[in-house]
Fold this sequence. Notes:
Blueprint: H1 2-24, H2 27-30, H3 37-41, H4 59-67, H5 77-91, H6 101-104, H7 106-115, H8 125-129
Amino acid sequence: MWRYLAAGAAVLAAAGGGALLLHRHSPAAALPAAPTAQASEAPAPAAEPDVPAAAEATREQRRFARYDKDENGAISREEYLANRRKSFAKLDSNGDGRLDFDEYAARAAAKFVAADRDKSGAMDAAEFAATAVKRKPGRAKCPPTAAPSGDES
């Protein structure tokens, strides 16, 4: 029974708060008072000087600018593939212009060696758990709700 009373009080409080907000933002409240003779004689407040705002580049414009190295307004094939060439060069450890499997999987192999702490050549469950990708913490999730106790007084 007390839950119904509490819910009713919450609804009334929300309705009262909503009425206050609506009254505060109503068009009649936002209109200025009619000018009087004294108000027309008062000096007008000094206008703030117009300060030009720098146009902030959008995310896509910044991305385009990173690729357009010669700044000619167009991205050539070479400009587009430049980042891929750098990544390929990092993986091509022997510099022969080809990636064999060991070069391609070097990062994974290094990760395995680092995770295999006992140097047994195999990972147990704890060692394998250390290889999980570390993610940035996201938004906090709602805590689990308690099950209703069933004692309504």
